[in-house]
Fold these 2 entries.
Entry 1:
Amino acid sequence: MNADTDADTARADPGLFGPQSVTWQLHSDPIMWIAGVRALYLQALHPRVVRGFIENSDFRKDAWGRLMRTAAFVGTLTYDTTEAAEQTAARVRRVHSRLKGTDPLTGERYGVDEPELLLWVHCAEVDSYLQVARRSGFRLSDAQADRYLDEQRESARLIGLDPAEVPGSAASLAAYFEQARPDLAVGSDAHDLDAFLRRPPISPAFAPARDLLWRRVAQLAYNALPPYAHELYGRSAPGPERVTLQLIAVGNLLRCVPARLRWRLPPGHIVRAMARLGPGARPAPYKLRSQEAILDGPGRAQRSDGGDSTRWRNPG
């Protein structure tokens, strides 16, 4: 095989998931920015996870950079070549293998890559992506939601987990959250992260934009948490029906921004994926709707789990 053939093969590589996957379509939706913040709130409910994050992160000095690096990592795993995804994940695993945290209660030193902690981070992330998207009006059948969670076992493998130990359906994810709840608590670390997310330090020139826009983003992400999370944080939130309406309104507003414009914003993985694979790789909601009749059996209720066995009807 010559160099030109190798280059052609790399350009044609659909990556870990490919354009026919639920992951490819779901991760292209702009509501993922709200979902990502919701994931941070949920992840911070695990005392060891949030302690390891605070001890090893520069988020207080570079909040936007931290968010962009996370978005770039997810974008690489979703839209880049298989080789790029594997290499990026290997670098992250190497970094995590050297990081330690200090248990806030016992003072024990532990590795931030302990499987229990990685599993909580993964489940909080995929649950947030799935719940926020569905409640905002992104149509997914139950079968497609299960397919998404099954696909995301590949992402779990890349961060160092055994895919067989990772929930691959809405039912198994709900069971995992129920089992994990006794380990959750909100201490000073989680309260610090909450305060930071609501009002991150920023240049005075951008303070008005933060107060006008970011505060609303953070509040909506917080509101979208399951009720037990609100109880742990000690801050109330509107009722679930009102929050769902807020998510639908914000989702519709964000989707009014032309996709070609949104996709060219950093990190730009979708544009590069389309250049590699051709225009047929363009994410589009209708592609999932056309699969729905095949994936979902007759008579299945369009419901999903909110991380606490609360059921949400799929809008639309």
Entry 2:
Amino acid sequence: MSVPRTPAAHAEDPAGTPSPFAGLGASIDRGIARGLARVTGGALGPYQAAIVRIGFAATWLLFLLREWPNRSELYGPDSPWTFDLAKRLVAGNHAFTALLWSDSRGWFELVYAVAIVSSAMLLVGWRTRTASVLFMIGVLSLQNRSVFMGDGGDNVIHLMAIYLVFTRCGQVWSLDRRRALRAAAASEAAGAEVDAEVDAVAGSEAAESVAGGKAAAGRLWNDPVGIALWALLGAALVMATAAGKLSTEWEVALWAGLLLQALWWAVRRYAPGEPRTVLDIMANVIHNGAMLVIVVEVCLIYSTAGWYKIQGSRWEDGTALYYPLHLDDFTPWPGLSHALAGNSLMVMLITYGTVMVQVAFPFTLFNRRVKNVLLAAMMLEHASIAVVLGLPFFSLAMIAADAVFLPTGFLRWLGERISRPLRERGTRAGAAAIPGQRPETAAGDEDTGQPAAGSPSAEAVS
């Protein structure tokens, strides 16, 4: 008599061994669910985004300040790459540059000043969203005006200026973050005051008016400075569009960005429920996608550089470093350069080491310890290039790009080491001004820089 097999029996072979595919579908579903929750639930790498923001803003700001006496020859009316030549080139490649909207010196000085101010704003994280857009406009306007004035570092800044617009890079280490914490503390204090006043007038019509008035005063989205900045940008965009200064692609992109920012503010101001949650999810997805693009971009830079070096005969025989050490344009310290060039073993080790590190680095991302060792080696290499070859801004740009791979624990430790003396100095100043008063603690965890539960992020007010 045959015994019918149960469904459980189908999951086993005749020997009774469980199928290796049993439960595979459930595991895949759980993995996908965890991945989606991680991508949509928050902005990944807030410290890495902040250090990239600070690095590139500082690099571009220092460059603009150093070249202040030569700005007109580099990007202005006195440039060898004349206004007409630049217009002919841009007409073909449709690159964005506000400097070609007018050939007057006053307009050039205004754009250059905006580039400096926006770099400083992005560096300290003040109105980060606005600053990131202005930073991108400043970088593209200057670099696309004179395309022969840049090097590899300028190309990296060019790309990262665009990517930073899509990141939430002001969530930590920014004035926006500090402002958000203070707004959260003020909101909590206003809420306590509302409760006290409502209790005092309980049962009367005045209770509703007091509560409504305090709640309106405590809203975080009454931001006249931010509204004024975006209204100014909107007016400038209207004038540029009316004058036909923008190509179709940039016109669509800039208007879409402005309208999305207006929608962001309106929803978070008047509809703090599900619409706000949806916008947060969208912002997190865009941020995480932009951070992934930055990571991939840096990997491509190193992998392509390394593989191109392998094809060069001077890199193959280990003598590539010898030649730039004898060029006058790359020897700010002739004694140091000639001493290094005279050591053939050191030249060979550095040449081969550079190629191996650049080719191997993208493959080490799967091993954290090896990745950190090679990351330190690359940063040390760029610092050496800044000193030995006299390329400080190229090196700063590459170090800022490398910083996206720095471990979160190290960044938090570094931020704590830098911020602790400043907090202690502020505490001593407050104690001296008001003897006997205990210093107030900021909303959130000061040791880690993470927001307290329910506190707004810096992007909420940027």
